[in-house]
Amino acid sequence: MITTRNRLSALHATIGSLKEQSVQPKRIIVLDDGSSPPVAMKNEPEVTVIRRESTGYDDRRLVRNQNMCLVFALKNSIVTDTGFVLVSADDCTYPPTYAETIIRRMKTEGVAVASGSRGIRTPPDGWRPPEGSGRIISHDFLQSIGFDVPERTGHETWIVFEALRLGYRVACYTDVKYTHLGAFGGTHGFAEWGHMEYVLGYDPLFFLARCGWDVVSRTMPIEASLAAIANYVRDSLTTPTSDFYRPFDKEFRSFVARNQRMRFGTLIQRILSLKS
């Protein structure tokens, strides 16, 4: 599944790398989110293009686009009960054995949501959740959530924590690399950062530490981290004007906060063991 908007050359590179996979995709579904001119695939029967008319760029459309792809896949029997879905940005390329390697490990290790890595640094506590692009999701987990991702900010992270909450395993295989052709944040400008962490229920101290790490590791520019903190604080003091920014239920948010406090504990143990 690929959502795209006005990135035709990068999209062709992404599709080309998917078509060269050692495990061939049953179908490549492209959601054209109002590109001008529209995306057109000639003589490529394995690629299906679904078009939405343009109403301007909006991050909130991304999750709806992905749900539209899932609905299409279900109605057309593309996703079987032993299958997997790969979610990709429109500006990523993958080595030929990317899908085969990850799916083999997922089957062996009982993992429901996994990805490779575009090369970002591992945080100090050592835990790496699956990345947003290059993410492979099992049919079993998708079935458990009704093939429907909540149309709220933070939906990519919601998938990871919901999988954990339901007892599934997740993984980021850092030795399996993929390439992000564009600059990270070049499209969305980190505009949802802070909003999504509050909606998901991030522990406040963990969130501040994460912002600090993003600056140190150069994952995000410092101004984006400061804006994220401002968004988080603002959302905690106001009532959302849109369902897209409505916090998830208390049980889910508590699970997220507990997971993050546990990661804090792991980090403290690592520091103490280094000192001893």
Terminal Cα span: 48 Å
CATH superfamily of the largest domain: Spore Coat Polysaccharide Biosynthesis Protein SpsA, Chain A
Reading side by side through the largest sheet, how are the strands ordered? 4-7-6-8
- Major sheet: size, sense and barrel closure? 4 strands, mixed
Give the C-level CATH assignment of the largest domain: Alpha Beta
SSE order: EHEEHEEHEEHHEEHHHH
Question: Any overview of this molecule?
Answer:
The protein is α/β, with parallel strands linked by helices and 276 residues long. The chain folds into 2 domains: 179 residues, Spore Coat Polysaccharide Biosynthesis Protein SpsA, Chain A, CATH 3.90.550.10; 81 residues, no CATH class. The chain has 9 helices and 9 strands. It has a 4-stranded mixed β-sheet. The chain has a 3-stranded parallel β-sheet with strand order 1-2-3, sandwiched between helices. The longest helix is centred in the last third of the chain and has 26 residues. 34% of the residues are buried. The model has no long low-confidence stretch (mean pLDDT 90).
